[in-house]
Amino acid sequence: MRISTFAGLLLALGATGRAQAQTVLNPEQPWGSWLVGTVQLPGSATNKWGGFAEVQARTNGVFHDYFYSELKAGGTFDIDPNFTVGVAGGRYSTSDYQDLGAGPLNNEKRLWEQIVLTQYSHRLKLEHRYRIEQRWFTFRDGRTEFRQRFRYRLNGFLPLNNKKIEPGTVFLVAYDEIFLNPRGPVFERNRVYGGVGYQFNKHLFLQVGYVNQANYNYTASQGQFILQNTAAKNNVVVNLTFKILHRNTTGQSVEKLPSQPD
């Protein structure tokens, strides 16, 4: 697979985002932003255990009108160099950016299990992530609710000036992720991302990109999925990742991709 293949993937994802943005039933939303800080400990050839911790803040406008935060962490285990399983959990808080003093609209505690499969073809690297989530909500009025969700993400990386993503590498990244709700609507959300990243040294990565996130409802009368009103939103994403390395990782044959845990 060559650069043209990855470019085609980017164009396809972009077309999906534009189609969502043009849906008549979805009024135009202001651009927002996601600010993400991640610490990762990937598994290695000599130590299969790994983990991560992440903090995230989201704003309704670009770098202003804060309303949402995430704190999460988890562990991973490499069954095979290209087959990783993981368990993680987190706390998610949503507020009204116009009235932060009133406290969160809801707090969510989340637990999830996932498997990640990676493929390497020349320069193009593909990652398939399958995740099952258990979600406990507590709303401002005291109500509680439990939900489950299934997610699948196809993530692609393309280093531009090296064959691998290593210190001094500029790389492109794109993904599309679908969210499925067993209670309905089954097709709950679609998230499309495209961006560029740079690895400064063996520890530090920076990614800057764009994400379009759209929530859907199924309308039986029309027999099709439609965007919920005011639900689709474009965001600027800035992600700084610090990677911790296991000791004695020299000679590791399989590169570990700087994937976003979100």
TrEMBL record:
<protein>
    <submittedName>
        <fullName>DUF2490 domain-containing protein</fullName>
    </submittedName>
</protein>
<feature type="signal peptide">
    <location>
        <begin position="1"/>
        <end position="21"/>
    </location>
</feature>
<dbReference type="Pfam" id="PF10677">
    <property type="entry name" value="DUF2490"/>
</dbReference>
<keyword id="KW-0732">Signal</keyword>
<dbReference type="InterPro" id="IPR019619">
    <property type="entry name" value="DUF2490"/>
</dbReference>
